[in-house]
Amino acid sequence: MFTRFSTLSRTAKRVTPIIAMIAFLFQPSQAQDSAVAPECPHCKNSASVVRIAYGRPSWELQEEAKQGKVHLGGCSAKKERWYCNRCKMSF
Questions:
Q1: Dist CA 51 CA 53 (whole Å)
Q2: Are 49 and 84 in contact, with CB atoms under 8 Å apart?
Q3: Confidence band, pLDDT 50/70/90 cuts, at residue 14
Q4: What average pLDDT does the structure give for the chain?
Q5: Which of 9, 23, 70, 85 has the highest local Cβ count within 10 Å?
Q6: What is the helix (H) or strand (E) element at residue 52, kind and residue range?
Q7: How many distinct structural domains can be found in the chain?
Q8: Domain extent for 48
Q9: From the CB of residue 28, how many other CB atoms can be counted at a distance below 10 Å?
Q10: What long-range pairs does 75-83 form, CB within 8 A, spacing at least 24?
Q11: What pLDDT is recorded for position 30?
Q12: Is 43 strand, coil or helix?
């Protein structure tokens, strides 16, 4: 039983850094979060452009979506990162 536990411990020591590396690679960069909203290609307005958040939203994110500060894009991520509240276009 002791050898089985030590085998699991060695496996956990190898897997944990890999999981941490994957989590680091898939988190959004600070540059992407703090980026200035681009101009909408359709209506040429940047004041009504908000970022699109993918995945399960937190309570805070749901409140921001109700206020029009962010657009909820659903569970599966797509290539669109911005949404225009004025013309309802994703880009």
A1: 6
A2: yes
A3: low
A4: 78
A5: 70
A6: strand 49-54
A7: 1
A8: 2-90
A9: 10
A10: 78/54, 80/52, 81/32, 81/51, 81/52, 82/37, 82/38, 82/40, 82/49, 82/50, 82/51, 82/52, 83/49, 83/50, 83/51, 83/52
A11: 40
A12: coil
Tell me, what amino acid is at 4? R
CB neighbour list of residue 42: distance below 8 Å, 6 or more residues apart: 84, 87, 89, 91
Structure tokens at 40: 């909408």
For the residues 66-86, what does the mean pLDDT come to?
94
Q: What's the angle, vertex CA 59, arms to CA 61 and CA 16, rounded to 5?
A: 85
Q: Which residue is it, tokens 């850094």?
A: 17
The rounded Cα 35 to chain-centroid distance in angstroms is: 14
DSSP 8-state class, residue 16: H
Place of tokens 């309570």: 59
Residue that the structure tokens 């941490």 belong to: 20
